[in-house]
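If you are new to this repository, start here. Below is one unmodified record pulled from the training split, so you can see the exact layout before writing a loader.
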Amino acid sequence: MDKKTYSSFEQIDTDLDILRIEKEINYQKIILGIQKTKEQFTPTGLTKNVFSVFKGVFSTITDSKNTVLSLLIPLAIKWILNRKRSR
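And here is the target side for that same chain:
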């Protein structure tokens, strides 16, 4: 970090005010992070986390870009239709 040269006390006060505000913002971010972490460990937070995991899993399965699933579904339908036709 380079040493800063000040020509007046106003510049020092301005930089100190900026640093105080940055410190308060960082402190509030930490407090918010702690609150979110506490919410995640409540019963409702845990159920939200479980459902979000299932939602993520099912969204990747049903995603049209999923090449494995897009290949397997037509094969499964063809196999079922052939099985019904042979009976």
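Two things worth knowing about this chain: The two ends are 81 Å apart (CA to CA). The helical segments are 9-40, 43-61, 67-86.
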